[in-house]
Design brief:
mainly alpha, Four Helix Bundle (Hemerythrin (Met), subunit A), about 5% strand, elongated, disordered N terminus
Length: about 160
């Protein structure tokens, strides 16, 4: 374990654990992106004349997105997870981590809302509207992903010019 300058304090840094967290987060993101791609493929499939089948396929892929996101949340927000490691940082980092936590809640709410909307209950789904809702969800997932990887890079890998 070494000491890393951070503002006026010297904080203990376990670089090998940060590398492990970075790699775990990368694998979780890779899994989530793969699930998102499968959902995109389902959404892009032909819907007219087969709306119920289309909605069922999209709903099944959305379940996989939710499972992947849930695994990531459990890992990132766990006792020794990514967010616990980032929370020890100085400056605006803890506030940015809190925003990521709130994003998790909002993303899960959006997934559940879309899932409910995809339930056909005998009615023909409005596939154009559902595609728009799903596109908004996927865009929000990508923004969250980008914010998270930027924060990991900034905290674990970027030399901010602080003396050694």
């Amino acid at each position: 374990m070494s000491l890393q300058p951070n503002n006026e304090k010297l904080l203990p840094v376990n670089h090998s654990y940060q590398v492990e967290l970075s790699e775990r987060t990368r694998l979780e993101h890779d899994d989530l992106i793969e699930c998102m791609h499968q959902l995109e493929a389902a959404l892009a499939s032909p819907a007219p004349g087969r709306e119920r089948e289309w909605a069922n396929r999209a709903a099944n892929e959305l379940v996989e997105v939710e499972k992947s996101l849930q695994r990531h949340i459990a890992s990132a927000e766990g006792e020794r997870g990514l967010f616990a490691e980032l929370d020890i940082a100085q400056g605006s980092i803890p506030m940015r981590v809190e925003k990521l936590r709130l994003d998790h809640v909002r993303l899960l709410q959006s997934i559940r809302r879309l899932s409910s909307d995809l339930e056909t209950n005998g009615d023909l789904p409005d596939f154009a509207r559902l595609r728009r809702e799903a596109e908004e969800l996927l865009a929000a997932l990508r923004r969250h992903y980008s914010s998270e990887v930027d924060l990991v890079f900034e905290c674990f890998w970027l030399d901010l010019g602080v003396g050694d």
